[in-house]
Amino acid sequence: MIINLDKLDYCASLKNLEPISNKQNYKFIQGDICDSHFVKLLFEVENIDIVLHFAAQTHVDLSFVRAFEFTYVNVYGTHVLVNTAYEARVEKFIYVSTDEVYGGSLDQEFDESSPKQPTNPYASSKAAAECFVQSYWERYKFPVVITRSSNVYGPHQYPEKVIPKFISLLQHDRKCCIHGSGLQRRNFLYAADVVEAFLTVLRKGEPGEIYNIGTNFEMSVVQLAKELIQLIKETSSESETERWVDYVDDRPHNDMRYPMKSEKIHSLGWKPKVPWEEGIKKTGREIEEDSPCLLAFPNTCTSLGSALSAME
């Protein structure tokens, strides 16, 4: 039995669950991991024995202006969930973290023993939550596992993340907005590959261990924009492509790269399989079918710096 607990925040949609909503071994429950009484009751009623903890506030830009909310949800919510799971004596607790806890690096690849040096409120909240999760292993030998993943993309992703955002903008005849130079590089993993990684960790991951879920495929943000422009707008020249790009002020801090070593999870039998060309075409088709509305982002290309100045 799979129980899907979700708050249904602004970025969630029950439409994404329609293909599985009628399955006999699946149940959706709306709820908030920050509600300790609700979470405790849920564990008691449903007899939960394994937890995969994905729930978080994750949008980096938003974390600069809602830092306290990110701390509350990502740190306090995680503490509530891991403590309740410990009291319920679940068999395994998997905490889904991010490569951003390492901070940026231009050349050195991070392995699981690299120090955490987060540089934005989102990454800081995830790093802090990791510490709470890990402490339950250190003190109680509660079987926790932590994963740190590269950027995930795929169908139905909310259009605040860079790939669905660029695709949606272009499909609505609007420009791709790029922070700063756009030379920041990111590693992208297709969602189906990441699902396989979590299943691998679920079956074979050792308690108390951390696993990087990474890929060698890397692309700059500006190159990503140009590839999507060529795919969707079918541009044939550099000048045609450039007219669909709008450069804006950068974030207060924007890490250039997050290079990771993933040999540890490779030793469990997992490696990414979906090529970029296949994954991005499928993602583009699905987003076009979903036709997400961008009215929620009327100032899509407004720089974060300007937003912060306005708040001050």
Can you describe what's shown?
This protein has 312 residues and is α/β, with parallel strands linked by helices. It has a domain of 200 residues: NAD(P)-binding Rossmann-like Domain (Rossmann fold). 41% of the residues lie in helices and 16% in strands. The protein contains eleven helices and eleven strands. The protein has a four-stranded parallel sheet, with helices on both faces. It has a three-stranded mixed sheet with strand order 6-8-10.
Provide a short characterization of the protein structure.
With 312 residues, the protein is an alpha/beta fold. The chain is built from eleven helices and eleven strands.
What are the defining features of this structure?
312 residues, 3-stranded mixed β-sheet, 11 helices
CATH architecture designation of the domain at 2-153 and 190-217 and 255-274: 3-Layer(aba) Sandwich
Low-confidence stretches: 292-312
CATH class of the domain at 2-153 and 190-217 and 255-274, named Alpha Beta
Cα-to-Cα separation, first versus last residue: 49 Å
Give me the number of helical elements.
11
User: Can you tell me the overall shape?
Assistant: globular
**Biggest β-sheet description:** 4 strands, parallel
Q: Roughly how many Å is the radius of gyration?
A: 20 Å
Task: Provide the CATH superfamily of the domain at 2-153 and 190-217 and 255-274.
Answer: NAD(P)-binding Rossmann-like Domain
Please write the string of helix (H) and strand (E) elements. Answer: EEHEHHEHEEHEEHEEHHEHHH
